[in-house]
Every structure is written in C-alpha cells, then in structure tokens.
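Hi,

Apologies if this is the wrong queue. I'm a grad student, and the batch job for Amidohydrolase from Sporosarcina koreensis produced an output file that my downstream script rejects. I'm not sure whether the problem is my script or the file. Here is the sequence I used:
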Amino acid sequence: MVIEKQIGEWFTHFHAHPEISWKEVETTKKLSEILTEMNVQHHTFDDVTGVVAEIGEGDRIIAVRADIDALWQEVDGVFRANHSCGHDANMSMVLGALSYLKGQQIGSRIRFIFQPAEEKGNGARSMIERGAVDCVSHLFGVHLRPQEEIPFGKISPAIHHGAAIFLEGKVKGEDAHGARPQQGKNALDPIFAIAQFLKTIHFSPYEAYSAKLTKIQAGGESLNIIPGNALFAIDVRAQANTVLNELKERIDTGIQSIAELYGVDIELTWSDYTPAAEVSEEAALIAKEGILEAVGEEAFAPAIVTSGSDDFHFYTIHRPDLKAAMIGVGADLGPGLHHPNMTFNRDALDIGAKVLAATLAKASFLK
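Support response: The file is valid. Your script probably expects a header line. Output copied below for reference.
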C-alpha cells in the first residue's frame, strides 16, 4: 500500500508539470531527485534531457523504458503542454516497478531508461547514441491502452504498433485577383488534387494503411486574393514497415506529377518517422509470465494490434538482436489517447507497476 500511494503521488506531480519534447528539464530533475532519494545509481546528460538508472549486479543487463515528454495541444481553448498520451503514467509505473524490485532478489542488472521526446519520434535515438541499450539483452516498455482496446484490469504482453511518418509540403504558385484567376496559379488547386490522389492509393485489403491530409494553410484576410502559396501536411501510416516505404514512394511520385500538371513547385519534407513494432516472441512470453504471476490468468489479454506508433521500436531497428516487447495496461482510458481531456482509472498504475516488476524479475533470471 505504501508503494501504491507513492506511485499515485508521483503521477500527480508529473501530471501537474508536463513538459514538451526536448524541454523536459524539470521532469529530468524530478526523476533524478526521486532516484537519489531511493539510493539508486543513475546519471543524466549534458546535452539532452532524460535519465538512465540501474540496480543489481552481474554481466547481463535487461532494461525497461519510460517516455517522459508531453504533447503541445489546445486544452480548453489554451495551447499548453499536456500529458494526454499517458507518459506521466508510464514514468510512475516504471518508478513503481523499481520500488517493488528494490525489495526483491534479482538475477542481473536492470536498467531504467527515462527517455525524452517520444512524441517527436527521435528521443529513442538520443538514448541509443548515448549507450542506453548497450549490452542489453531484453527491453520492455509499458503504456496505458484505450478502453476500446482492452478494459481496466486486463494486461497485454505486447503491443504491435504500426509505422508512421509525416509529410510537410509547400506549394509555390502565384497570387491573382479573384476576378482574374487566369493570371495566377492557385495553390489550393493542387492541394485538392492531392486530397483526391491519396484516396486512389490501394494495397492488399489484408494490409492496414492510411494517408490523410492533416493541415492546410493558405490565404489571408483579403478574400478576393487567390493564394499562390500554401502549406499542407499528411499523416502516413501502415502496419508493416515495407508497406509504409512503398506508400511513401507512391505519395512522392504522385505529388510531383500533380505539381507538373498544375505548373507549380511543391517542396516536400518527410519527418518524424517511427517504425512498426518488431515484437520478440521470447520477450512477450516473459511478459505473459509476469502478468500471470502478478495479477492472475483472468487479467491476461492477447497481444494488441494498433495503428498508433511509438519510437520505442527504434531500439530494435538499431539492435535487431534485442528482444523487446511493450506491455499494454487496460485502464478504462477515454475518450482516447491524445484527447486533450483524456482520463483513466488510476488504480491501473499500481497494477502496471506490479506486472512490470514481475516481468523484469523473471527476465533477470534467464540464462
């Protein structure tokens, strides 16, 4: 009960003090303070946010990762940092698992990676570059799941995230008077063509994928000026990395054809790529054993397949030999991840911490 209460207090603090990607300065300080109070060896970095801690002894190392950044979004009419993706919960569950493990015998070193900038899609790379998964054999993650995936009290041993990438484009045409459109090149025309083109891209119906416009900016206050320049963005997703790569190529080719058709220049910039999950069967089995030990068979839920993405999977792209799985925690979460008013049943925090502790303990004794 003492640890459960502490997990709740940690969550309350992190939830009340959100910080966006690469700006998690106070969050990093708070994590360092907590780890110091727990007498846990840890270190921070001079050039990026984040903390890496470690307990146990021996040559073998297993690890767990928690993301620490918040989103920047409009909440009740005001743009601000907001933990609507549950990273405040992830930090609290991982700290809770550490608390439970400190009172147990473990069979190897266990590393705790508190990673920045998951929402930017490149925070994992910063930890990889700084040696966070060097010599690590097994890596686990944890994340609250929406109520439409699994209900409160159910725990999944693996989340099969999809791949995602964002495209930002700039159309360069020519302004014209609304009465004389022939004198300009309307930047909105190719954007409307792009919107229709995206609907013509087809793969096998057995593949999950999507591409949709998420931003259009054009024109000003004068309604009689046809805008020559416009900005747009496209969210591109697929369940498989190979499909995402082909989808990206088709979009590139199609948009350049549209630019030629309308006689405009369209500059394209791809960013924030996150790969699809490469889940280790061995790691997922260890997580299943942890679930059964911590909360029983009635709490076990099958692996989750979701079109959402997570930069957790960069770790296995960098280290194909790394055995990794992310545990999904049912929390009666709604209306949904990234909704500005997302809420969940906070009793899920202690459940997630206990499952994670049991999973890490089991992994630590593997030969």
